[in-house]
Amino acid sequence: MKFSRVHITFCAILLTALSVNAQTSFKPQNQLLNTFKKNFKDANAQYKLLAKQIGPQEFPKTYHPDTKKQENSNSGWWCSGFYPGSLLYLYEQNHDEQLLTEANRILGVLAKEQYNKNTHDLGFMMYCSFGNANRTEPKPEYKQILINSAKSLSTRFNPTIGCIKSWDSKNPSDYLVIIDNMMNLELLFWATRETGDSSYYKIAVTHANTTIKNHYRPDYSSYHVINYDAQTGAVKEKKTAQGFANESAWARGQAWGLYGFTVMYRETKDKKYLDQAQNIARFILTNPNPNQPADKIPYWDYNATNIPNALKDASAAAITASALLELCKYADNNKGQEYFNTAETILKTLSSPAYKAPLGTNGGFILEHSVGHFPAGTEIDVPLTYADYYFIEAMKRYDEFVTNK
Ligand code: GLY
Which of 46, 92, 325, 367 fits as disulfide partner to 397, beta carbons 3.0 to 4.6 Å? Predict the structure, then answer.
């Protein structure tokens, strides 16, 4: 049977139409888009205030509403990339040169971390900052900083374990890997694309596969920390550091995993990562009330004992919303719609006075009510830079459904 050119063209159009996923049917709500427009403007004003709270070499960390005290960090703190990243996202929305100037200034302070081999957090630190800078205005110096950062991060990979080491330990036989580490892999994929060196890609894939094997429980909730035997790679302990208990589901850990495996699917198109992300989404979305509040802002740990009086974690919610707004594009129509709707609910709630700080308050941060490290008694019910960063990113992702960019 012969196909005419018309036939072939028709089939090609049909296939293209079928392969465009549910994203074409996701309809952003006008009212919410208007809310986000105002949020971006408010965030712009807040970040000008935030910029006034830091010294020349400092990065904002949090603000304590009870004592009205600002807490800042140096560039080595794992969150140092979120402040420049948020400034750059906001500049894209509002075109306020003052924010771009501040972003460029603080990127200069951060740049030295490209050589930091003592942290697994380089993905957060350098990709959320220089990654966004290079995305919006590609420059050879940004690329070099990102490549050096990927090189530094790769030095923490151990092929016997099959993971990048998260935390150093005093005990030389410990090899600690935390679920958060999934978020540092995006930098490695970028580095392989940029340099053609596949070793970064292979490290990312191996790390993700080891994480699927050892970090996840049968219900697709995640342990926070796996301690491997540094010599043999055997699992020694499965435990928590920032969660309620070793066997609990720490909310932000679930969000990091969801986001991380969604990126894994984007970068590899390997369906096992899509399945993993969707299984994590199921755990998050179907957790029974009261563990899953109607406003979709999770308690800081799904198993905290004092639910429904436990604290909520806006940061986990913001990360989840941003991840779902990507995952919905890869999922089948029904699931995709559920992810999109959940993200909408989260973002509506975060935009409400229950979470979004009044202008001129909150030390300049956008969102209130996140939980950093409950067991350590630090950063409890406070604003955090990464809650703001992923909130802005999620709103940007939602906006992009209007034009299907
Ligand atoms: N360890 C990173 C976090 O607190 O999520």
Answer: 325
Distance from Cα 372 to the centre of ligand 1, integer Å: 7
CA–CA separation, 326 and 317 (whole Å): 15
Indicate if 180 belongs to the active site.
yes
Q: What are the pocket residues of ligand 1 if the criterion is a CB atom closer than 6 Å to any ligand atom? A: 180, 242, 252, 372
The strand pair at 59-64 and 69-73 is best described as antiparallel
φ, ψ for residue 303, nearest 5 deg: -115, 15
Q: How far is the CA of 95 from the centre of ligand 1 (A)?
A: 31
Q: What pTM, to 2 d.p., does this model score?
A: 0.94
| pLDDT value at residue 24 | 52
Q: From 1.10.10.10, 1.20.1640.10, 1.50.10.10, 3.40.190.10, which CATH number describes the 1-52+261-405 domain?
A: 1.50.10.10
Residues of the chain with pLDDT under 70: 1-24, 404-405
Tokens of 69: 């005290």
Atom of ligand 1 nearest to the CA of 252: 5
For ligand 1, the distance from its centroid to the CA atom of residue 179, given in whole angstroms, is 9
- In 96-243, alpha helices (H): 97-110, 122, 132-136, 140-154, 185-195, 199-215
Condensed to tens digits (0 to 9), the pLDDT of residues 104-148 reads: 999 999 999 999 999 999 999 999 999 999 999 999 999 999 999
Atom of ligand 1 nearest to the CA of 241: 1
Report the pLDDT value the prediction gives residue 12, as an integer from 0 to 100. 44
